[in-house]
């Protein structure tokens, strides 16, 4: 199914540039499951690429004009693809339609009952919670998530049911393309500094997203987060829109009465409005931390707004056990737990460190942090450093550039100096390969190591575990 404005057969033989990315691979997977002949390219091989090949997708490694098949009906790109990409240039020369990832995803949602999950933080987790719980109830949803639930390729699925759950990305305003029946807004903060210059621009962007909700649909929005409350005030009174707030605020539509953490799980009690079944409801969230508990309440509210009984959905939410890179336990060696976190914004860093602190017991929390993007570090480096002060000790790597070119004067020193000012025990490490040995020397049984950031710091978890096992064997 092609996006609006494109010929109906544009998605018959699509070519994805950067097909191994989280968002791109999910759309490619759904199209392949729907019978399209999908091809694409990526800079390197990966488990995600292998999962796509298992579905019959042709994936080329590297980018070259000859990778674009003669019969390609469209080329799908994300905002990360540069204009001089050889395959994109070839598409323009041959007159092949170029479709943005968001348009492709919008096309996939045509004819479904979409729930779109937006917010500066928590999108992947909340989308995953809905996908897992709705599947557990036998509703067979389709979904597109910005991370893998359990195995490479599990970030998306074509289901036979009428519900489609999608992560809605505000970073490049691509969420303006969707027309959800229910939209979730978890929080609203200033981020993505290359695309937004102020909070006013952020609010305008989220308001545009709200205006895309289908007539008679619902907005589920946090009552506790200041930016979300401000947005709620700006969209209040729109005809044909139900607004359901959730949170600990006494005026919330779905009020959180209590969150009790038990190790690495939480028990949540909410008070439902009569429109969603009424009465108190207690359920378990199988991941730690207040922010994950509140994400689960957002998922519960959205599902109930779509007509799924809250008292059936609540226990199903307990079947969600996590998503890759969101406080994912990588393993235990020499009595040390190694956990991976995607957190890269100061709010996320603080939330994950507070959540982990609750499950660390008497052990220390040691962080390996990799700042993500020069633009983000320039604007938020001081706040990142302040957040790292919540750890017992931190090792800070060089900035992961991703799609950006270096910015003179912007380095991880901005984070390190801020962390030190707030009393943190912080160490700079410019050689990523030296980190496993460094951590092996720092840790002791009972400690918890957290690899944190949106870049390739995630690769260090298995290497740290291997070094810990080696040291343990040498000392035994």
TrEMBL record:
Quote the pathway field.
Cell wall biogenesis; peptidoglycan biosynthesis
Q: Which family, according to the similarity comment?
A: Belongs to the MurCDEF family.
- Tell me which residues make up the Mur ligase C-terminal domain: 325-455
Q: What is the lineage of its organism?
A: Bacteria, Bacillati, Actinomycetota, Actinomycetes, Kitasatosporales
Task: Give the protein's function.
Answer: Cell wall formation.
Residues bound to ATP are 119-125
Name the source organism: Streptomyces cuspidosporus
SUPFAM superfamilies annotated for this entry?
MurCD N-terminal domain (SSF51984), MurD-like peptide ligases, catalytic domain (SSF53623), MurD-like peptide ligases, peptide-binding domain (SSF53244)
PANTHER family, alphabetized: UDP-N-ACETYLMURAMATE--L-ALANINE LIGASE, UDP-N-ACETYLMURAMATE--L-ALANINE LIGASE-RELATED
Q: Could you tell me the EC number(s) of this protein?
A: 6.3.2.8
Primary enzyme class: ligase
* Protein's name according to its UniProt entry: UDP-N-acetylmuramate--L-alanine ligase
